[in-house]
Design brief:
Number of domains: 2
CATH superfamily of the largest domain: Glutaredoxin
Structural class: alpha+beta
């Protein structure tokens, strides 16, 4: 009986250590502070609003933005979740448009557009 309990405790410790390793894999050094990543969905009307605004204001000529579609691309979707976790957001309540900007997470067209206006001021 004692051996079963000891085995159970060891298994719990191993699971705990693995959880810390896996959850800690999305740490700060994985996200360069100066990187801008725009996560969007291909059928998202608010995402389209942001993209149109970026084109009209030639934002991509002023700052480098990596665009990642998340509805049809699982890898990009997982990256969005990692970015949200990095920012301490509840991953059950994140959506697009979503901008990972210099270590910050911005959600929604108004917040993203306001950030980009400030970022690209002369």
């Amino acid at each position: 009986m004692k051996q079963k309990i000891a085995t159970f405790v060891v298994v719990l410790i191993i699971i705990g250590l693995l959880s810390v390793i896996v959850l800690g894999s999305g740490n700060r050094k994985d996200r360069p502070q100066n990187m801008l990543i725009f996560f969007y969905g291909n059928t998202c009307p608010h995402c389209e609003d942001v993209e149109e605004w970026m084109v009209e204001n030639k934002i991509e000529e002023k700052v480098k933005i990596v665009k990642k579609e998340v509805y049809d691309n699982r890898q990009n979707s997982l990256e969005l979740v990692r970015a949200a976790k990095y920012c301490g957001l509840d991953t059950n309540n994140i959506g697009v448009p979503f901008l990972y900007a210099e270590g910050r997470c911005l959600i929604g067209a108004p917040e993203i557009i306001n950030y980009l206006i400030e970022k690209t001021k002369d």
